[in-house]
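hi! just following up on the protien thing from before. the input was this:
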Amino acid sequence: MECCLTQGELIRLDGKQDGVILRCTSGTIWLTCGDGRDYLLSAGKSFELAAGQFAVAEALQAAECTLGKPVSNRNTLQRPVIRLAAC
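and the predicted 3d structure came back as:
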């Protein structure tokens, strides 16, 4: 699933049973998942959230990203696992 985030917009990620991959396609995304470290994703970078983990991601500037389930070939994404709704 593709999504666009405006500067300062937050999303909550849920690894559920299979985990999730957040791939930044443009802009910059800050991510924290409770492991005591922060991650910055720029265009072309990705982060894999393990099954059962939660994370919060924030667009530090307008950003586009792709969300999907990890598959055996880590260069591809499978069906979306997160639904976003406009507020």
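Confidence is low (pLDDT under 50) at residues 75-87.
The chain is about 0% helix and 50% strand.
cheers
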